[in-house]
Design brief:
Structural class: alpha/beta
InterPro entries: AGPR (IPR050085), AGPR_AS (IPR023013), AGPR_dimerisation_dom (IPR058924), AGPR_type-1 (IPR000706), NAD(P)-bd_dom_sf (IPR036291), Semialdehyde_DH_NAD-bd (IPR000534)
Pathway: Amino-acid biosynthesis; L-arginine biosynthesis; N(2)-acetyl-L-ornithine from L-glutamate: step 3/4
Organism: Natronospira elongata
Catalytic activity: N-acetyl-L-glutamate 5-semialdehyde + phosphate + NADP(+) = N-acetyl-L-glutamyl 5-phosphate + NADPH + H(+)
Pfam families: Semialdhyde_dh, Semialdhyde_dhC_1
Low-confidence stretches: none
Number of strands: 13
Length: 350
């Protein structure tokens, strides 16, 4: 469909009242190839979009639906579904939902992008370990392409089932993949920092603003679900399992991810490493290798991931910053849609 001047895509967003759903509404509204957008939210059915996303008032207007209008979707030349629902939701409903798509001859021609962790791991046993429950549809796991846009572009072209990577996993892989092309560290120490929006719209005892606003703490050390995703993806690249430890932290900010990766690689020098990163991401518009150090403020509201490097006496540090709701979620989902449909991957993303 590349080069078409009309707006042939009809997009359906499941879980559209959440933070990721709001970013999808904003991005898709401005996308040059997207015509109609359906936003589904059972909790906000019948309400205007700005009831959940006040910043859209007057700019992006519409009404939440209680359920998808699959007949309208079936009339589209290019139907696309984004699931921005919590972990487990799409997988639990997938058998019935895919049957409903098949009834309207949508199943084989609809691009489905899942923003949750339901189909990222590709293995039922790994999913059970990471998420603490059996996978609802293990037979469907092999149908999904892992959508790390900058490193999976060829696999994504023409894909109809796309598992969007997690925000931490996106940042870690973008930071590490070029390094692992040069060396195999004995050990990787990975520290992650995230803002409160990564916990979703419903507050808990640890994510509620009064508990989080002036605090900084670690959580799920060495057992965060994204660690399994990181291990699996990096092992697939290197052909063997890597020894690493991932410790995420909760920071008093709303948006953003900051990753620091540390390794010991004697003989590595910063100039050579920087040249390799520049070559690895040449032409990749959304990856910016900065001369100083990455900052969360520099990426908020963008689909960019900023990378920084430091090397001294064999100690190698790679840093990454991105917006968890855009490059770590909705923006990468649209980037993956673009790649799947043969569009410019930056279309609609600035």
């Amino acid at each position: 469909m590349a080069g078409q001047a009309n707006r042939p895509i009809t997009a359906l967003i499941l879980g559209a009242a959440g933070y990721g759903g709001g970013e999808l509404l904003r991005i898709l509204h401005a996308h040059p190839a997207v015509g109609e957008v359906q936003a589904v939210s059972r909790s906000h059915a019948g309400q205007p979009w700005h009831a959940a996303h006040p910043r859209l008032r007057g700019f992006v207007e519409g009404e939440f639906l209680a359920k998808p209008d699959l007949d309208t979707l079936a009339a589209s030349d290019y139907p696309v579904i984004f699931s921005a629902q919590p972990n487990g939701s799409l997988a639990r409903d997938w058998s019935a939902f895919s049957a409903a798509l098949a009834d309207r001859e949508l199943l084989s021609r609809t691009t489905v992008v899942d923003l949750s962790g339901d189909f990222r791991l590709g293995d039922a046993q790994a999913y059970q370990v990471a998420y603490g429950q059996p996978h609802p549809v293990p037979e469907a796991l092999g149908q999904w392409v892992y959508g790390l846009s900058e490193h999976q572009a060829e696999a994504l072209r023409g894909a109809r089932r796309i598992a969007n990577p997690g925000c931490f996993a996106t940042a870690v892989q973008l930071a590490l993949k070029p390094l692992l092309e040069l060396a195999s560290p004995d050990w990787l120490a990975i520290t992650g920092v995230t803002g409160s929006s990564g916990s979703g719209v419903h507050p808990s005892a640890t994510t509620h603003h009064p508990e989080r606003a002036d605090d900084f703490r670690a959580y799920k050390p060495l057992q965060h679900q994204h660690e399994a995703e990181i291990r699996r993806a990096l092992a697939a690249q290197g052909g063997h399992a890597l020894k690493l430890g991932f410790v995420p932290h909760s920071a008093p900010m709303v948006r953003g991810i900051f990753i620091t990766v540390q390794a010991y690689l004697p003989g590595m020098d910063e100039e050579s490493l920087r040249r390799h990163y520049q070559a690895s991401y040449e032409g990749r518009r959304f990856i910016r290798l900065v001369d100083d150090l990455p900052r969360v403020h520099s990426v908020i509201g963008t689909n960019a991931c900023d990378l920084g490097l430091a090397v001294r006496d064999g100690q190698v540090v790679v840093m990454a910053a991105l917006d968890n709701l855009i490059k770590g979620m909705a923006g990468q989902a649209v980037q993956n849609m673009n790649l799947a449909l043969g569009l410019d991957e930056s279309s609609g993303l600035g």
